[in-house]
């Protein structure tokens, strides 16, 4: 049984938080958080509201810089790099799906999906062409020219997912990806997310308060009081 | 799962042989626990004795199972009544989970550790059901969803109880 400590990852970690500490003013958010995620793994981060789970996700993704501790990605420390370098990392090697408001309302669906490629310097025609398979894979056919205001919640979230995955990120960070969706729509989004991630070998780190979303992951960790606890299931007695 | 009422339901659809009833029961309701032939025929015999089904004449053909069973008016009425009744809304008010937590607290044991272990077991089962749902048919998904929602309800209770452990410990020891 490994309740209360971090089990070792099956392969070398692609991303790792080591003793990460971060406070917002007087309020401690992370107090020595450790998490190691192997390449291709899908890990769910759970925990009560205010426990620090989103803060941990943001530290791992280079959005926030820890006060102490280290973040390592692909064998290199990233928390000490400058904002320009971390921004390039987020654009080129990470993908993001959040709960709300991710799409640029002025852009069409296909432009939204192509955005990471356009920002990375791909020519417009080539970038838009790259979006085609994602419309098929994420059940978005026929919505190419719509703007975000003309999409349902589930459609918008699938567009966000396509945008997060189009540049073939090594890690997909998802923060409550189904939080604004009904059960059936959320399930559809998670199903597509898992299928796409497995197909492309993408590592997924998902923050969720919903056990049914966490159940799509191969492993869960719980953040409590700014620290990470991992559990390994024991065989249950009947 | 009430085997007699489920068989009555299958017979309400159409008169059937015992073999067909077993096949359909196993396909929809058996899920890893198929109904033994002995239980099928014993149940049908009781239903016949109680006037809820009647047994047709033996039909010509190979094999021993050549009798067709037909639901009676009494059987159909009983089935319809059962089908329309809600299931007890709070069947698990005092579960083993609850008993273990309270006993751990009374005895000064580590209830939090037990809840963490239970939480991991619940999520492991939810992962298995999620995979079944993703790989299986819509009927598989329906059954898996029923399990998933119940496990999720337990998990929410586990999380809430974990958050309240200190107060609960005081309450049970006072």
Features:
A: 238 residues, alpha/beta, Rossmann fold, six-stranded mixed beta sheet, four-stranded antiparallel beta sheet, globular, disordered N terminus, B: 174 residues, mainly alpha, Arc Repressor Mutant, subunit A, 2 domains, three-stranded antiparallel beta sheet, 8 helices, 3 strands, elongated
Q: Provide the low-confidence segments of chain A as ranges.
A: 1-10
**CATH classification class of the largest domain in chain B:** Mainly Alpha
Helix-residue proportion of chain B: 55-70%
Binned, the helix content of chain A reads 25-40%
Q: Please name the CATH topology of the largest domain in chain B.
A: Arc Repressor Mutant, subunit A
Question: How would the blueprint of this fold be written?
Answer:
The complex is a heterodimer of chains A (238) and B (174).
Chain A lengths: L12 E12 L2 E12 L3 E5 L6 H8 L7 E6 L2 E2 L5 H10 L1 E4 L11 H11 L4 H7 L1 H6 L15 H13 L5 E5 L7 H18 L2 E5 L3 H4 L4 E6 L2 E4 L8
Parallel strand pairs in A: 3-8, 3-9, 6-7, 7-8
Antiparallel strand pairs in A: 1-2, 1-4, 4-5, 9-10
Helix pairs in contact in A: 3-4, 3-6, 6-7
Chain B lengths: L2 H11 L2 E2 H13 L6 H13 L3 E6 L8 E5 L1 H12 L11 H11 L4 H25 L2 H26 L1 H9 L1
Antiparallel strand pairs in B: 1-3, 2-3
Characterize the structure shown.
The complex is a heterodimer of chains A (238) and B (174). Chain A is α/β, with parallel strands linked by helices. Chain A has one domain: Rossmann fold (3-Layer(aba) Sandwich), CATH 3.40.50. Chain A has eight helices and ten strands. Chain A has helices spanning 53-60, 83-92, 109-119, 124-130, 132-137, 153-165, 183-200, 211-214, and strands at residues 13-24, 27-38, 42-46, 68-73, 76-77, 94-97, 171-175, 203-207, 219-224, 227-230. Chain A has a six-stranded mixed sheet with strand order 6-7-8-3-9-10. A four-stranded antiparallel sheet of chain A has the order 2-1-4-5, with helices on one face. In chain A, a hairpin with a 2-residue loop joins strand 9 (219-224) and strand 10 (227-230). In chain A, helix 3 runs parallel beside helix 6 (153-165) and helix 6 (153-165) runs parallel beside helix 7 (183-200). The longest helix of chain A is centred in the last third of the chain and has 18 residues, at 183-200. Chain A is globular. Residues 1-10 of chain A have low confidence and may be disordered. Chain B folds into two domains: 3-84, Winged helix-like DNA-binding domain superfamily/Winged helix DNA-binding domain (Arc Repressor Mutant, subunit A, Orthogonal Bundle); 96-173. Chain B is 69% helix and 7% strand. Chain B has eight helices and three strands. Chain B has helices at 3-13, 18-30, 37-49, 73-84, 96-106, 111-135, 138-163, 165-173, and strands spanning 16-17, 53-58, 67-71. In chain B, helix 2 crosses helix 3, helix 5 runs antiparallel to helix 6 (111-135) and helix 6 packs antiparallel against helix 7. The model of chain B has no long low-confidence stretch (mean pLDDT 87). The chains are: A alpha/beta (238), B mainly alpha (174). Chains A and B meet through helix 8 of A and helix 6 and helix 7 of B.
């Amino acid at each position: 049984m490994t309740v209360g400590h971090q089990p070792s990852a099956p392969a070398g970690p692609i991303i790792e938080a080591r003793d990460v500490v971060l406070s917002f003013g007087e309020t401690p958010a992370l107090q020595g958080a450790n998490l190691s995620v192997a390449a291709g793994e899908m890990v769910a981060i759970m925990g009560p509201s205010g426990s620090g789970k989103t803060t941990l996700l943001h530290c791992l993704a280079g959005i926030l810089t820890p006060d102490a501790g280290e973040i390592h990605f692909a064998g290199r420390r990233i928390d000490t790099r400058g904002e320009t370098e971390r921004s390039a990392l987020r654009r080129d090697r990470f993908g993001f799906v959040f709960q709300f408001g991710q799409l640029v309302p002025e852009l069409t669906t296909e432009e939204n999906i192509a955005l990471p490629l356009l920002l990375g310097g791909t020519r417009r025609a080539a970038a838009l062409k790259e979006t085609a398979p994602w419309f098929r894979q994420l059940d978005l056919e026929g919505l190419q020219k719509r703007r975000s205001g003309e999409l349902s919640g589930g459609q918008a979230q699938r567009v966000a997912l396509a945008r997060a995955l189009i540049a073939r990120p090594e890690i997909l960070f998802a923060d409550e990806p189904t939080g604004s969706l009904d059960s059936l729509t959320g399930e559809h989004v998670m199903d597509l997310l898992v299928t796409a991630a497995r197909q492309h070998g993408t590592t997924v780190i998902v923050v969720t308060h919903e056990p049914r979303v966490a159940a799509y992951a191969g492993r869960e960790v719980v953040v409590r009081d700014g620290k990470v606890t991992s559990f390994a299931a024991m065989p249950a007695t009947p | 799962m009430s085997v007699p009422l489920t068989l009555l339901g299958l017979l309400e659809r159409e008169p059937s042989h015992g073999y067909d009833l077993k096949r359909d029961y196993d396909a929809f309701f058996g899920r890893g626990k198929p109904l033994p032939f002995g239980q099928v025929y014993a149940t049908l015999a009781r239903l016949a004795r109680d006037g809820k089904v009647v047994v047709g004449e033996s039909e010509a053909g190979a094999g021993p199972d050549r009798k067709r069973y037909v639901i009676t008016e009494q059987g159909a009425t009983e089935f319809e009544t059962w089908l329309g009744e809600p299931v007890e809304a709070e069947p698990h008010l005092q579960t083993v989970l609850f008993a273990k937590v309270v006993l751990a607290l009374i005895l000064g044991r580590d209830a939090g550790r037990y809840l963490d272990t239970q939480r991991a077991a619940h999520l492991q089962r939810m992962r298995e059901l999620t995979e079944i749902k993703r790989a299986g048919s819509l009927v598989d998904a329906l059954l898996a969803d029923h399990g998933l929602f119940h496990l999720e309800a337990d998990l929410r209770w586990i999380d809430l109880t974990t958050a309240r452990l200190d107060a609960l410990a005081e309450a049970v020891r006072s």
